[in-house]
């Protein structure tokens, strides 16, 4: 990690800011909130914005980025923007079209990072979650190595500066890394990661392959009832985290974010509240001791908030493996 610039080198020579703003919100949240939050975040010093075709708010996020470029706050090259290939576009001939849709929504010429959002493919079509007459999600079988080759072409064509994956397990990462004729390694694997699911083994594996681990749901989860078991414990109410917050005169969220940074993880903080967006940026102003880190490591209970149960029967379902 390069502390001066608060960024980390990727294996293709580009750099990723170690703290990013997450922009996912449940459907009932107005899309305009993502625009507001992105503007607030850029003004507060965030340079890494994480979004996705799936979130259906790239028009608003793009508007925010362009307005901050127009008013002179940032230049385009100051912003690190991530988008994601959705599961209905895994067929190699469709990969570029999904990226082009995102770029059109954003009104940008390129994304800094384009990642395969989830390894399970779904039936192509207009629906984000295509379902059959019984309401069951319709899955598809696509060779992810072929998808990856189409991702490589997007990088070659300058539509994405870097390419990576999300929600891949070790076996799936190895499948890409061992692919005959591999041109570019994934620069990152973006996965759910927080003190209750610290991903220690996957992190060690990624580091050994020079792949950056990016943590989503780092503050626990948005607790959207569509995805998350409502009886799951609330991470930021954990007494251990709250005690550390008191000790350091920080918020529980700052403790959870700092934990990731000190492990060499790039961390995404999702908030649409101005106060919290600004507070989360203060994560660079303090340090946890090795004793604090050990205490936080001890909270791991392999609790996954987002288990994507709808895809559990698919051969590429990533969460059945240990890591």
From TrEMBL:
Entries under SUPFAM superfamilies matching the protein: NAD(P)-linked oxidoreductase
Alphabetical keyword list: NADP, Oxidoreductase
Residue ranges occupied by any NADP-dependent oxidoreductase domain in the UniProt entry: 19-300
Family: Belongs to the aldo/keto reductase family.
InterPro entries for the chain: AKR, AKR1C, Aldo/ket_reductase_CS, NAD(P)_OxRdtase_dom_sf, NADP_OxRdtase_dom
Residues annotated as the enzyme's active site: 55 (proton donor)
UniProt site positions, description: Lowers pKa of active site Tyr: 84
GO MF annotations in UniProt: oxidoreductase activity
Pfam family, one: Aldo_ket_red
This protein's name: 3-hydroxyhexobarbital dehydrogenase
Binding-site positions, substrate: 117
Gene (UniProt): AKR1C29
PANTHER family associated with the record: ALDO/KETO REDUCTASE
């Amino acid at each position: 990690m390069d502390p001066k610039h608060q960024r980390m080198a990727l294996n293709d020579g580009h750099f990723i800011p170690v703290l990013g703003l997450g922009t996912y919100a449940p459907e009932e949240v107005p899309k305009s909130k993502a625009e507001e939050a992105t503007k607030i975040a850029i003004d507060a010093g965030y340079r890494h914005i994480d979004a996705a075709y799936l979130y259906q708010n790239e028009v608003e996020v793009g508007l925010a980025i362009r307005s901050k470029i127009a008013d002179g706050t940032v230049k385009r090259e100051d912003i690190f923007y991530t988008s994601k290939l959705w599961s209905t576009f895994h067929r190699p001939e469709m990969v570029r079209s999904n990226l082009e849709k995102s770029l059109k929504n954003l009104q940008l010429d390129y994304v800094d990072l384009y990642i395969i959002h989830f390894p399970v493919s779904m039936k192509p079509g207009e629906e984000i979650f295509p379902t059959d007459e019984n309401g069951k999600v319709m899955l598809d079988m696509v060779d992810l190595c072929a998808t990856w080759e189409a991702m490589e072409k997007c990088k070659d064509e300058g539509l994405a500066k870097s390419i990576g994956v999300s929600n891949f397990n070790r076996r799936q990462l190895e499948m890409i890394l061992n692919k005959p004729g591999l041109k570019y390694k994934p620069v990152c694997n973006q996965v759910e990661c927080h003190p209750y699911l610290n991903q220690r083994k996957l992190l060690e594996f990624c580091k050994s392959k020079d792949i950056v681990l990016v943590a989503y749901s780092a503050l626990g989860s948005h607790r959207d009832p569509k995805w998350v078991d409502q009886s799951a414990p609330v991470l930021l109410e954990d007494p251990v985290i709250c005690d550390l917050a008191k000790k350091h005169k920080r918020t529980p969220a700052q403790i959870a974010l700092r934990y990731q940074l000190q492990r060499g993880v790039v961390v995404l903080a999702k908030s649409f509240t101005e106060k919290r967006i600004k507070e989360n940026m203060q994560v660079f102003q303090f340090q946890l001791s090795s004793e604090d880190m050990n205490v936080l490591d001890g909270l791991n209970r392999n609790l996954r908030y987002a288990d994507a149960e709808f895809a559990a029967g698919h051969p590429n379902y990533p969460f059945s493996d240990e890591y």
